Amino acid sequence: MMIRQALTKTQDRYRIKGTQLAEESGISQQHWSEYRNGKADLVSTKAWAALEAMERIHPGAIQYFCYLLAGRSVDGELNTLIEVADDDELEEAFLSIGKRMFRRNTVESALSKRVKSAAAQKSNAQ
User: Which distant-in-sequence residues (6+ apart) come within 8 Å of 52 by Cβ?
Assistant: First the structure.
């Protein structure tokens, strides 16, 4: 897999918005978009800055990127990790999963409330 493809797939997997990436990495949204679409290149320092920014936004992004470059399946690795984990490691994994699900549900709930509120305001305005 090419570096461009791995960076793009990493950004997409973690749903990192271009605005977030621009703020964290110092790379303009326009330049990043051109890079993603194959219309521009990035020097290695900028590519690394983008990857570090993804990691700050979503820890685990660098590891995922490296798996992609190595041509390895993250899913297979996860299954292996689960199989060899001891009880303490499994407990830590379950806590991490619970925290992530809580954050996801909190974000989805907030977005749903905003959409309903915007629809109600639009309805009232008419």
Answer: 24, 25, 62
